[in-house]
## 1
Amino acid sequence: AEPSPGITDDTIKIGVTGPLTGPVAVVGGVAEGIRARVEQANGEGGVKMGDGKTRKIELVIEDDGLDPQRTLANVRKMVEKDKVFALVGTAATPNNLAIGRYISQKKVPNVFMYSGVVALNAPEWEVGFVPSFSTEADAFAEYLKINRPDARVAFLYLNTETGQTFMTAFDGAIEGTAIRVLERQPVTSQDPTVETQLNTLKASGADTLVIIAAPRQGGEAIRFQSESGWKPLTLVTNLSSAYPVLQSVGLENAKGIITSDFLKPIVSDQKSGDEGVDRYLDAIKSANVNFVFANTIGQTGYAIGDALIQSLEKLKQPTREELMKVVHNMDGWKNPLFFDGISMNTKEGSDIYPVEALQLYQFDGQKYIPIGGVLEFEGTTHE
Amino acid sequence: MNDSSIEEVRPVLQARDVSVQFGGVKALTDVSLFVRPGEICGLIGPNGAGKSTFLNAATRLVNYATGSIMLDGQPLEGVETRDMIGRGVARTFQNLGIYASMTVLENVMLGAHHRLGGSFAKAIFAPLRARALERSNREKAMAVLEEVGMANLAARAAGSLAYPLQKRMEIARALAAEPKILLLDEPAGGLTHGEVHEFGALVDGIRRRRNLSILLIEHHMGLVMSLCDRIVVFHLGRNLAEGTPAEIKSNDAVIAAYLGKAA
Amino acid sequence: MTLLDIRDLSVFYGKTQALFDCSFSVGEGEFVALLGSNGAGKTTLLRAVSGLLPFKGSVFYAGKALDKISAQTRLALGVAHIPQGRGTFTEFTVEENLSLGATIVASRSQVREDKERWYETFPRLRERRNQLAGNLSGGEQQMLAVARALMSRPKLLMCDEPSLGLAPSITQEILAIFKSLNKENGMTLLVVEQNVDITLQYADRAFVIEAGQIVASGTASDLIGNEDIKKSYLGVAG
Amino acid sequence: MRDLSLSTAIKLSLFAIVAASISVFAPAYALQQVAIAIAYAIAILGLNLLMGYAGQICLAQGTLFGVGAYVTAILNATYGVSPLATLPVAAAVSAAVGLLIGLPALRLQGLQLAIVTFGIAAAFPQLLLKLGSLTGGVSGLPVDAPETPGFMTDVPELWLYLIALACAGIGALLVSRVLFGDAGRALRAQRDNPQIAQALGVNLTRTRLWAFATSSALAGLGGGVFAIVSGFISPESFLAILSINIVIGSIVGGVTSMAGAFVGGLFMVFVPSWASDINLSLGNLIYGLALILIMMVARNGITGFIEKWISMIFRRAAG
Amino acid sequence: MSLFFQLVTSGLATGAIYAALALALVLIFRATNVVNFGQGEMATFSAYCTWQLMQWGVPLWLAVLASLVGAFAIGIVTFRLIIRPMMDAPVEATVVITLGILVLFQAACMWIWGAEQLSFPSLFPGGGFGIGEVRVLASAVGTLAILLAIALAMGFIFRFTKLGLSMRAAAFDRTRSVLVGVDVERMLMLGWGFASVIGALAAILIAPRLFLSPTMMTPILFYALAAATLGGWDSPLGAIVGGLAVGVTESLGASYLPFVGADMRIAVPIALTLIILLVKPVGLFGSYKVTKL
Ligand SMILES: Nc1ncnc2c1ncn2[C@@H]1O[C@H](COP(=O)(O)OP(=O)(O)OP(=O)(O)O)[C@@H](O)[C@H]1O
Ligand SMILES: Nc1ncnc2c1ncn2[C@@H]1O[C@H](COP(=O)(O)OP(=O)(O)OP(=O)(O)O)[C@@H](O)[C@H]1O
Ligand SMILES: CC(C)C[C@H](N)C(=O)O
Ligand SMILES: [Mg+2]
Ligand SMILES: [Mg+2]
């Protein structure tokens, strides 16, 4: 077949857009993580692709400040001017929604989006990456059903699709159990503080606090539950349970919180003997990334970069259609940063969510300790 | 005050027992004053006597606590500031009320605003009519500038004029409003002696041509005495005296309070 | 002894020249009037001397060349300027205005003393001491401007049209105050005025400025008698 | 007078040349960007009237822009109205909302008004989320592309660009009608000194409300165009920062200049991304420096700066 | 009922955060007639400097002291380089310039220290104490006490000292100030320096609550502006009262007004500000400007 735009015999051009600046610049870590993995691969000579040719990846990174309008502008420029082969790791839901129509029109793959929301609008040309928030909700519900079957839950939720998706799924999962939700309070990423919401949640008499919020507010909530004399069982979304967040809160304040993740916990920048983690540490060091090693967003970026490279290795023909075929038919792909037992699986036509398993962790004041086994939700991602 | 004189012709402007207070400061206490049609009435008094405040009250820029002010026999209570000019009261300001960044012509054209209405609706939906009005307004404004001898300065920025010319431009703007009565607050400020004479002639000419009533506040005694038909004197926010220039000039109370020894 | 010596002073507003090579001097302890019609350049001259405008030529004050000296320093050297249009701090109280007038005065007791003195002179200001200057009547503000300038106890007081907006009796009073400061404290005065007749009653000497140039000068008594000059430059009819 | 119409003619033809060459030389993706810049420019035109001439600082112009965008999107996505037909409605609804926002302006001035309106801008995205059933919440709303005339189906962006340009033309006409006449004078008069203006018979209430309404109508029109050109809108596009950016665009372009509105719109769209093109990690540093340096060099905005130079050159040539 | 008191208490704590930035805004406004939108970001930069010094092993108090001195220098340099050349530029230009300062300092922090939030040590003992069921944070009490002291000192200096009078005069009118011998540039420079110090102190006080990050001040900006407006832009004490009023009403409104809720709580300070301004357009403690006709 005719090669698609953006690919030559020795290079392939890939576009990344994300918020490198602005209030959620932490999410820019995705782009940085991808860059680290790609530079690593290029440094090792390039990617030996399925058609037998070895290509170097040329990354085009653009800053969109999380403004969907700028995301679209960046994508158009990358597609029409820079002629990228595909987009990877596009951050945040509204931004992916904004480019949906355009990428379907132009038939440009938008792979391994950094978005935890299920409903998108160009499924043929997209594939997700991180587990949906509904998956995380299921995992939390699962934990409660076993460990606190009569939990009285208070929700602090991000007032976007993120929080909505999470709560809808959670409500569905606890149906028919003795678990009750007593109070829900929204937060926005613009809220200066969330004391008010937390006070109201505390006053509800709940014994379980579920935190679905961006790092700043999530961190504040973690601190609150330890400071306020309220000692609920605290479940925190992985959006705001990364080690650096806990550091900012004070590790002792985070003791006992429970979170779920598909990544291995990394709490030290020293070689651990785990090959995947060690290669990651090398990569981010030589790429001189702007996040710290323990940042899960950066790790996710690196994992996305690795997934990209794996898909290219399997690309038999240098076309965009072929790429979509590959990423829509993943069967148990491994990833260096994934927790053992979690892999990527998709099925063309029915399942575009590569990661649908989570591991629960509890923080012991120093590090995350896995609790229970991997929770598998393969093929069950729902609204 | 002098009731018999009021009977003769109805005054254009008549104030009775007007008091104005700013917080604890009593700026005016029960002052009365009237201006007959076609008359130039002088209003003098020491600094802080309340002259400007009276003008502000008469144009409804400040509220008066008691008393009444009537225009053509109509009470002004409840009339909005912005409607005063439409009722025929135009004024100048002691501390200059000019628009420094606009041209002289624009300033003068603003005088006719109350007649044109300056409505956005008209400008947007009836642009041709708005443009025609604008043209005729400009011509009239030029004519007024001609009348005060400032036509050659029409395109200058008002702020760049010398102080006395700015004051004169304010008069032109007031005239563009085609008022019945003109209230002038120290219009001759900054003029030299000779210029004051010339200025007096200008004001008198305007009054005659347009058959205007004028209330004139000035500290320039030569001008006031030569120009005014009648003079009212305020002191400490009250009426002190009233009379013809000759009477005022020789009024001991006025000399003591205001004129000083060598008037 | 000459206190203020102005030589070939030229001032430009952008490209337009307002003063052309003006030269004159004011002796210490003199009361000098600067006369001239509108737009002659009187204000410009004062602004140049007090440091509000840059100039060409030279201005010496007590033997010092002023061109490199900042406005603050000029004030400290004793040059005070009461600007046209008063320049009071309208959003400050009368009292604060007087305090500001004494910015360069270090001695608190002197400030207190002087305030008392000017309140004595202008009882109106005392009545209004806690009122905002902007709410004063025009003439009251003029009094305040004068009192404020005197708070720094200047050696050379330049006053731009003090009579503007003042009642005749107050004009006389202020000129009389100037005169007595001049006589008793030896303060040098340079007063710009339109009100020629009254000014010449108090001044020792006068210069006439016209279209940016000094066109005449003389003692006050000379000028009062000189109908020619009065007619052609000062517009005083008969 | 003749001078004035001559310079207007020169400006207009210059504008036409620029507009035409953009449509010829700009690649499709850039053309769409330019169309978005023009949508912002329409809102800036309104803000210039309000801020530059009426002297009222409104930090909610982005909100009114958003109202317009949502009116267009809702009418189109929910009720199937053809996109272009929604534009007058978008302008009208925004005008009405603008009147409401303008009410406090009758009593508040300057800084105080700026801050109250800024608050409204900050609350707007939350309100959009709260009214999710109407606005589509965080997922936003799609907008149909307007039907492209046959001969340009290859470059639908060109059609979008022309639509934006036409709307901007209407906006500019509207503003010029208001500004160059008695209404405009009254507007400036109440800005420079409201008390004197009142004494001259200016109805402050009416003048200010009209200024708000006109400005908001233009914001709404711009927003509608924005929705059409983007094809998709969501609350994230109308955060408080948008209102700030519109104000920046207005000032950088020149608050009292109509051409400045276009400069400002282009500035808003292109300069931040150029800055990050220069160096990805220093993008905002460069942008911040650019803001400061531009204002230091061109304190009356870019058009003010250019006009100063042009008139200087003319004067040189003449004298 | 205990929820009510808890909401009031934590509203006060949050209000103290708003008041801190508002105080710096009011100071610079009073001293230079400029609303410095970048004040918060300049302050964040100083807080990062403190953090950095501590990373290098400097003890907290010394680090704070050093950064406050540094903040003074930053204020002065900003004035010299950016503001002084623009002293007689139109106000719009200044608005963009201060927004430029905001962007610049935020970008600088992000470039040097990254986007991640960091923990910042509190000047006060951690935790708090309970009054009945109500929990009071020691840091909130401490912050408020310091702010109050600063506001009173500022008010005193502005009103009763020669320096304060001169600073106000310089902000009011340059020419007039020059004529009475006020060193205008120096006053404005001091204004920038002091405001920068107060801002830095504010940032150091509130960073422990907000976590240190380049954008920590951004969400506060509107609330601080509202607080300053509510209190009246020329009153330091007003800034504190305004900040606390905003904090408490917002906290109560978010909990007790169901149609507002936590997601629309920003409507509460807007409404409060609007109502107060409609009654008193210059704010609670603001003074009216005068125009004599
Ligand atoms: N807004 C105000 N607040 C407080 N006092 C005021 C206000 N306006 C005027 N006054 C006071 O009222 C008195 C009268 O002032 P007004 O301006 O009417 O005097 P005037 O007769 O015009 O004096 P002048 O000849 O000096 O202009 C003055 O003592 C002044 O201080
Ligand atoms: N800021 C300025 N810009 C340009 N030209 C100016 C400026 N100020 C004054 N001029 C011009 O300089 C000349 C001298 O003005 P100046 O104010 O010194 O005159 P004056 O003698 O004080 O007049 P008046 O009696 O009206 O106060 C005038 O022609 C005036 O137009
Ligand atoms: C924190 C946010 C950037 C996450 C975003 N709401 C998402 O959909 O992934
Ligand atoms: Mg008066
Ligand atoms: Mg003068």
## 2
Amino acid sequence: MIWWIIKRDLLLAMRRRSDVLTTLFFFVIVVSLFPLGVGPEASILRIMASGVVWVAALLASMLSLGRMFSSDYADGTLEQMLLSPVSLSALVMGKAISHWLVTGVPLVLMAPVLGIQYDLPVEALIVLTLSLLLGTPVLSLIGAIGAALTLGLRGGGVLVSILVLPLYIPVLIFGTGAVEASTAGMGFGAHFSILGAFLLVSIVFSPWATAASLRISMG
Amino acid sequence: MIWWIIKRDLLLAMRRRSDVLTTLFFFVIVVSLFPLGVGPEASILRIMASGVVWVAALLASMLSLGRMFSSDYADGTLEQMLLSPVSLSALVMGKAISHWLVTGVPLVLMAPVLGIQYDLPVEALIVLTLSLLLGTPVLSLIGAIGAALTLGLRGGGVLVSILVLPLYIPVLIFGTGAVEASTAGMGFGAHFSILGAFLLVSIVFSPWATAASLRISMG
Amino acid sequence: MTTGPSPIEMLTARNLECIRGEHRLFSNLSFSVNPGELMFVGGPNGSGKTSLLRLLCGLSLPDDGEIYWNGTDIRKLGVDYRDVMTYLGHLGGIKDDLTAIENLRISCALAGCEIDEDQAADALGQIGLAGREMLPARVLSQGQRRRVALARLLVTRTKLWILDEPLTALDVAAVELIKGILEHNLAKGGMVIMTTHQELVMSTVTVHHLVLS
Amino acid sequence: MTTGPSPIEMLTARNLECIRGEHRLFSNLSFSVNPGELMFVGGPNGSGKTSLLRLLCGLSLPDDGEIYWNGTDIRKLGVDYRDVMTYLGHLGGIKDDLTAIENLRISCALAGCEIDEDQAADALGQIGLAGREMLPARVLSQGQRRRVALARLLVTRTKLWILDEPLTALDVAAVELIKGILEHNLAKGGMVIMTTHQELVMSTVTVHHLVLS
Amino acid sequence: MTINWFKYASPASFYFLAGRMIPYFSIAAIIFLIVGLYIAFFSAPTDFQQGEAYRIIFIHVPAAWMSMFLYVVMAFWAGIGLAFNTRLSSMVASAIAPTGAMFTFLALWTGAWWGKPMWGTWWVWDARLTSELILFFLYIGFMSLQAAIDDPRRADKAGAIIALVGVVNIPIIYFSVQWWNTLHQGASVSLIQSPKMATAMLSGMLIMALAVWMYSIVMILIRARLIILERERHTAWVSELKEGVLE
Ligand code: HEM
Ligand SMILES: Nc1ncnc2c1ncn2[C@@H]1O[C@H](COP(=O)(O)OP(=O)(O)OP(=O)(O)O)[C@@H](O)[C@H]1O
Ligand SMILES: Nc1ncnc2c1ncn2[C@@H]1O[C@H](COP(=O)(O)OP(=O)(O)OP(=O)(O)O)[C@@H](O)[C@H]1O
Ligand SMILES: [Mg+2]
Ligand SMILES: [Mg+2]
């Protein structure tokens, strides 16, 4: 069943091929904006790199949260999901996975290319990419809760960011922390285990919390 | 007539009081995220400050573009606007003004407070605020064109950023340029006149271009 | 082709053609509607009724043929045409977050006829929403939302009404009410073009039936 | 209060009350629907028909009273109830960007009954959409979209159908079609609860009328 | 009918109970505040390192403690409300949020005020300061979510979920000083170790903490009473109250 949801969401994304590309472009543009705003000194850019990439990934992921449930809500599909004999948590998990596939994966693949622009050393590039690989699914999973809670509320698009950003911050801190630790020549294993722990916890709790939020929002 | 539109949009914004606050909080949160990603050294932060504040303002303004026409489109109000005997450009101007009042003005007011956190000197704070005051209406006006063009396209929320960000970049460059010029002790008058020119040009052309885009999108 | 303003107001369609994808919905469609006349546009689902109405109000362009108002092509008339015409589509243009009164006042203002709070409350009362004027549209029932949209017909001063399935979701009492409103407009010399799948018997006025297939 | 599964399947509502804002829409509403029975829920706009249907399918909770399926509270049944029940609301759950076939297959899969491409095309053909199966729903007419949503009734194997104004936007032929589908389900021992503002004469089956006011 | 009685009786009886308790807690708050302020400004010795500026500690630390404590309490009651559908506990949770946000703001503000003389800057992006800021955002998020929802039942439940999810932040704030090396002071008051500071300072801080605690209780009870009145305005007992029957 979960496959149906993933298949459908990917189908919808593909129907507008621009959809996948656009999140990616957003990410690329935001990352490229900073050198414009800050100035071109390479030393400063190198320090900023991981932070900027991570913040851009976070914003790209957050930006697309609005779409996660709202169109299903507007056209009545969500009602049908709530009435489906299939477990709502499974459906929600499917939606979070396809959200990650559409928004997270392209970012992870693109990150090394952008890192090069900021003159990052190879090891830092690898660590950055891996940290995004571990971190972006957490963003989608946590984001699902926020998206479900703000469903149907006007200004939800921005309200969701208030709810979700504070929860994203720990991911951001450990994600960039890993890169900085590796640049400083220290071990980044601890950061990765914490990111991994975040991922496990959110896999376990987020579908459940999201399903509960959806039932509340639709009640 | 234009007052009716402004009144209506402000009414809609006020109906959910959180709406105005949320754009503001988004702005505050984004500005607060960067030091987390980049690290707390005050010297680096001071260099980044104007860039970060401007980029955040730009993102906050862009994020809310999605809402500018899409709800009017979904519920058929836009159809009625196209059929209205009132000039569409005037209606569009009204919508851009209320967008600015709801998203731009709070950012301008908040900017100095955030600048203090980045340890900016007083003159730089004033220049930053003034540059935002001149620049944010331009963002709303340009944004309106993008929002109109992407209307009804799935993934429009992200597509609009591709269209609009390149046009935002000159504003960003001259906005931050003004702050940097003032920090460097040079005159910032030239930057301000260019921002002013942007504003005039966009006041003249944007409503017209937006109206034309709307007619195309609805055709 | 324009023949200067004719003495009586009328809407004329000449040789309209509408193609959607592979399908030619209709072609060579000509008709005219005179003051006091009602035209029902009938036909099965997907036969092109909505498409025709959108052509007539200028929201989209015909693939062939012309539409005249008083002998002038509506594309040339622009604002002057929009001044005398009211279109109500499938979508009501009702904002969930605004109250019934606010919705009505704003949609009227958009249509170029500003009304004050009392007039709006009055119109809503007439259309059976007394006591619900201050509720946000979000909580209104389907039929009540529809009534809010239709209330505009009570205050508008336009001649030509183009209505796409105005009776959807309305109960029997409301259908009678709308019938009365239409008859009133026709009696004043207005014109109505509408689609509906429900029967609506109007004996006192001139009724045309245009059936697409 | 639960009395163990009774031998015959039936839906029973006891003392339902529904309050919205300041209004008590209904209270002390009790009824039961047995296999092969149809219940029309009637009443003017805003009388609480949609609200009642949403209670019955478990989308919202009654302010008072209980709803039993085979003698067990539907809240306790959860998935078991959703397994035997189909709800179609005002909104069709139709995605603009997907084709009619994709829409049907996905909505069926969601409802727990997976069908393949041929079955879907077949159902769409039966409901009068032959030749439009591969069109994205965006370009379908209002009635055609509605038919895509209703096509689910042809393939679902659930007993209890709860339909909110299923006839909206349908032409006369489609209304007859739907009537046939409902009669078929009832003949098999199914149950139907529906609202409609249009007349629908069903002589061969047991029909209850519940009128809210 | 019996079920109804239970459902509606508990907020009503809480309303009157709270009304009776408020004066006692107010008096306690005032007494603790006077004693605490006396110690803070007159009795406690001037710090040999920090001079007089350190006296901010008597507001800063109690406010910071309270901000975290109230969040946990709020999440607890919200969670109870979600799990057992007890409306009263959800109302209490909503009543706590503004006070919690106020103390978070106070901790941030006094901290910033203190930072200027101590660290030479209003603000640094260190882990504890940042996580306290996140706490502020969590309170704001909770309140704006509830404000954005019209239906109180839905608002309660939605708020509960975000409050519970946000609880993860509390250990992060508390342990931030240990996990990252920061500018901010580590914990000097702990249940396991004996205190490292002067007795007068410690007692002043603890008494101020009690004062702040009592104040919070008073504010929460007052706000909870208002929320109850607002939510129960259609019930018989509130209309009787209005007509003065129960006075
Ligand atoms: C905006 C800036 C600040 C924030 C957000 C902040 C936040 C906090 C928090 C959350 C606590 C309670 C944690 C605990 O009990 O372990 C705390 C305690 C404390 N803060 Fe701050 N603080 C700030 C600035 C300062 C400054 C500038 C100083 C002095 C140099 C300071 C000194 C202390 C002390 C001494 C404690 C008590 C620690 C203990 O004994 O447990 N804080 N602060
Ligand atoms: N791009 C397209 N490709 C193929 N067919 C299309 C396309 N766009 C529209 N159509 C068809 O054109 C018709 C549009 O009909 P329209 O909406 O005008 O019907 P209608 O008479 O209003 O029907 P209803 O009674 O259902 O509202 C539909 O049959 C639709 O399938
Ligand atoms: N928050 C609220 N405050 C006041 N009234 C409300 C609120 N929410 C809903 N209502 C009222 O409750 C009723 C809901 O009715 P419902 O949608 O069930 O009607 P219906 O019988 O389906 O009508 P229709 O035939 O128009 O579809 C409406 O009269 C609406 O005005
Ligand atoms: Mg149609
Ligand atoms: Mg209804």
